[in-house]
Amino acid sequence: MAYDLEKVLSYGQKIGAEKALIIDDSLSRYYKKGDKASKHCMYFYGKSGEAKLGWGNSFEFCLDRVVNFYKNLGHTVEVIDIPKENPA
Fold it and tell me: What pLDDT, in 10s, does the model give residues 53-86?
């Protein structure tokens, strides 16, 4: 595992993410449910081109299509649920 699970979870909680997408043992991006503004498409948290790191519209309604896309390209894909708070 090339990523630090605790860091992925704690940062995901900090930004309000619901899922983390791991591709080939590296964090790719975070996702959360969409709303009316995104036409109910999921939001993703990541850097796109020259844009700043932040939430953007993924234009996907569910993460399954994204996962299947990367798997069909031969990548190892893992989805991690981000709990709302640390269980302690």
Answer: 889 989 999 999 999 999 999 999 999 999 987 6
Place of tokens 């964090």: 27
Q: Across the strands, what pairs with 31? A: 19, 44
The Cα–Cα gap between 6 and 20 comes to 12
Instruction: Output the pLDDT for position 2.
Output: 79
Contact between residue 58 and residue 31 where contact means Cβ atoms under 8 Å apart: yes
Q: How remote is the C-alpha of 46 from its chain's centroid?
A: 8
